[in-house]
What we know:
Structural class: alpha+beta
Largest sheet: 8 strands, antiparallel
Strand content: 25-35%
Shape: globular
Mean pLDDT: 86
Helix content: 25-40%
Strand order of the largest sheet: 2-3-6-7-11-10-9-8
Radius of gyration: 23 Å
Low-confidence stretches: 1-20, 190-195
Number of helices: 13
Amino acid sequence: MRLTLPWLTSMLVATACLIAQPAITPLPLDAILLRANMWELDQQALDAELTALHFEWISAARDVARSSAPGLVFRHRSLNEAIFAYRNGKLAEARLSYFNRGDSPALREDEFEALLAGITADLSSATGVEPAERGRDPGNVVRAQGRFWDAGGTRYLLEWSATKASNARAIPFRAEFIRLTLRPLPLMRMPVGAVPVRTRDTVKAFVGREHVERLPNGDAKLKDLPMVDQGQKGYCVVASVERIMRYYGATVDQHELAQIANTDASLGTSTGAMLSSLRRLTGRLGIKVRSLYQWDVRDFLKLVDDYNRATKRGKLAAELRLPYAIDSDTFFAEVKPEIYREVRMKSAADFGRFQRDIHRNIDEGVPLLWSVHLGIIRETNSPQPTGGHMRIILGYNQATSEILYSDSWGQGHEEKRMPMDDAWTITNGLSILQPLS
């Protein structure tokens, strides 16, 4: 990965190897999703079928299962991903991705419209009813379009979004996502004259301190932070933001966030672009966005100078000379971890502020978006060995001087810990999304 300044932010590179693939066996979801009693079945009743379809639990809570297996289809139409969510031991929601920009080849506008028309025809045939047009959802991050079918005790909600250029020099059309969400009927009906609950109202009503757990071992940590699996693409930033917004009670999807932040599936997301986009949506989402610590060009160049002075003083390594086009990968590929750590820990004031920011926000029930550079500190449970990445800090232990953090990589990554000084060593950004008071 090449991470160039001036933005110097966290990105995750998903590298794809182009190799010959065997014939793909279809894995149809129809037998589950068109079943009349689907919502009445206990979780165990679906286990064998979901295992055959390569579903895996995305967290130890075993309340959300995900499959992105090749061959996954519904009504003979290919899917990128299927997510089943459970509540009280029963299936409560199924989300299917027909297309998303992170996992799918690009579509022209006519191809996108043809795919929508085909899916609409499939669902009308499967349900035996014609769709009702919902139109744009004003509470949605990107105001996605939608239509739905009510049949057989299920609402099938089809939603889609695309970006159209506002000037002639930009790409005229970019397909973003097409997804189908299934939920049991009857859905909650609003009383006549009632005002629908908006996302911002849900988020503003969140009381963070009620979600802080303090354990006998000294851990102070957040409860109920949901897991999202970003898959094999550079969606660590948008997946982390989705998790935090869902923690606050909002229904937000990483593909919507990828649209507003202009995420690239290979290169990832500029944290600055993500935060700027969210600031524009403050009123709609009910959050305020704060950057607590963020590198810029001057910070990075100062770090390089401090590192080179340390190498001269100790004669432990050669000075590092960056190319004219400043990029952090060149630097991080060559640094000696022990010298880099010494330089980072030199400022007791910055390290102290880092600790205080973590303690203060966790105590208020606010998770922290944590931008890091992997590969400097040895880690044993990280699928990504090097490069920029976004994590969530969800707790701390003052007695052991540790942080508790999470990666958006599914089960096994819900809660990990690291010494506070190691955490500061690899940090290049710290931000919060906080409910408006």
